[in-house]
Amino acid sequence: MSTTLDPTSIDTAAPASTTGLRWPDLPAAQQPTWPQDGSLERVRETLAGLPPLVFAGECDVLRDRLSDAAQGKAFLLQGGDCAEMFESATADNIRDRIKTLLQMAAVLTYGASTPVIKLGRIAGQYAKPRSKDTETRGDVTLPAYRGDMVNDFAFSPEARRPDPDRLVRAYHTSAATLNLVRAFTTGGFADLRHVHEWNRGFIANAAYARYESMARDIDRAMKFMVACGVDFESTPLSAVELFSSHEALLLDYERPLTRIDSRTGNPYAVSGHFVWVGERTRQLDGAHLDFVSRIHNPVGVKLGPTVDPDEVLRIIDKVDPERQPGRLTFITRMGAGTIRDALPRLVEKVTASGAQVVWVCDPMHGNTFESASGYKTREFDDVVDEVRGFFEVHQALGTVPGGIHVELTGNDVTECLGGSEKILDGDLEKRYETACDPRLNHQQSLELAFLTAEMLTARSS
Ligand SMILES: O=C[C@H](O)[C@H](O)COP(=O)(O)O
Ligand SMILES: C=C(OP(=O)(O)O)C(=O)O
Ligand SMILES: [Mn+2]
Predict the structure, then answer these.
(1) Using a 6 Å CB cutoff, which residues line ligand 2?
(2) Which residues bind Mn(2+) per the record (predicted)?
(3) What pLDDT, on the 0 to 100 scale, is given for residue 235?
């Protein structure tokens, strides 16, 4: 479907930035210090010769789905690891993450009474921006871990040395992951009847009894569908769409994996269906925003509590000048204590400008703190409260809450505090397995889905 990118074409596909420079020459924040031995250039050439991981047509389908989310006709569930790791790309881990997303999506579909768009932070989420360039343990200071695409999590000088060959390994691990995602989502595993049975298993635990009535309502709806003769073997009840996404952080990975779509002649990132620019790299005259402004995928931009509303308008002008519905998603990550104050002025200004973006709530990144025992963690109640604040703000303004963006795993980890399982600080050491930020475990993820579904139901009734 696509040809390898002529490196000059993407540079001319959109106007130069306000500085007059084009993205290869613009400053790019949060890039690793790669070795200066020619290995990076060799790796970029290798990547440029590899097949696309996703197809432009699939990205267009996702953009259409997101256009529905912008108008309240669909709801986005975006979720997965903070940092995927090569060694965690096992069949069991991938299956359990997909299972968690499918279970959440079933509950949210019921709550929203609209389709739920399933978008994994998966098959490419291998690079991390960091607050500090180094990490110190005792009297040893080493380069920070920047994701498996850059260096290794182990705390030794060899492990932490950036290695360009990891970019190629990230590509192949993403390919293997996507292959399994496609099999799991189309091969019968995603049948709504299984998903509903899994959710019944979750509710069977007394800790989650408060969600029983919603599960019973879903049960009745399923029986009604059977009585009406609905064929569960047919799509979309047995095969689902699950799209991939990651932060477009490492331009040495993204640039060689940008290709010209043979149908339209437009450039697309073929490393994932949706890519986003993070809070630390969204400088208006930086390389990241310039890069996403030139590709035709649906793209996201994270917005933290300090963002200036006028800056947000300039981001729209740069990334979505044609105001194409579904093209631009703003993923706000304000913090539970801040969202009710900080979000309204952004939404008001953007709405007044006539832009139609998808507003998505990331209730994770504004709620991170260090626990007394020294773990980077988040309180489940803060996560829920930020989602609640997000719904309140949109309700008050008459605008559309388009979705949620969550760091989660299908595994039974102990990384975030609270939830009905009541994970305490003393429990964190038991199964703290994340390579970067704390994720909701399987149970906490489902609980968040039920609570969000209640908010969605309250809104639509
Ligand atoms: O998701 C990622 C983190 O929020 C980001 O990498 C910063 O983490 P740090 O403060 O531990 O570096
Ligand atoms: C780094 C992340 O988020 P943010 O850019 O919002 O801090 C992330 O999504 O893991
Ligand atoms: Mn994170």
Answers:
(1) 82, 129, 247, 278-280, 302, 333, 365, 437
(2) 82, 365, 407, 437
(3) 67
Residue 154 domain-assigned? Answer: no
Q: Which atom of ligand 2 is nearest to the CA of 279?
A: 5
Closest atom of ligand 2 to 128 CA is 1
- Protein residue with its CA nearest to atom 10 in ligand 2: 82
ipTM value for the complex: 0.98
For residue 363, which amino acid is it? P
Flag whether 315 is in a domain.
Answer: yes
Ligand 1 pocket, 66 CB below 6 A?
A: no
* Domain assignment present for 150: no
Measured distance CA(113)–CA(256) in Å, rounded: 40
**C-beta 365 within 6 A of ligand 1:** yes
Residue 306 has pLDDT above 80, yes or no: yes
455: domain CATH number is: 3.20.20.70
* Ligand 2 mutation target, pool 131, 247, 331, 405, most atoms within 8 A of CB: 247
Segments forming the whole domain that contains residue 394: 39-133+164-190+239-460
Out of 189-198, 221-230, 417-426, give the one with best mean pLDDT. Answer: 417-426
d(C-alpha 342, C-alpha 62), whole Å:
29
Pairwise CA distance, residues 95 & 272, whole Å: 19
Identify the residue whose C-alpha is closest to ligand 1 atom 12: 130
Phi, psi of 290 (to 5 degrees): -65, -45
Ligand 1 close to Cβ of residue 82 (< 6 A): yes
pTM metric for this prediction: 0.96
pLDDT tens readout for residues 26-61: 999 999 999 999 999 999 999 999 999 999 999 999
Report the b/e string of 89-112 with b at 16+ CB within 10 A.
beeebbbbbbbbbbbbbbbbbbbb
Q: What is the pLDDT of residues 164-198, one digit of tens each?
A: 999 999 999 999 999 999 999 998 899 898 999 99
Say if ligand 1 is within 6 A of residue 135 CB. Answer: no
**How many structural domains are present in the chain?**
1
In a domain, 223, yes or no: no
Q: 433: closest CA among 353, 442, 20?
A: 442
Separation of 76 CA from ligand 3 center, angstroms? 18
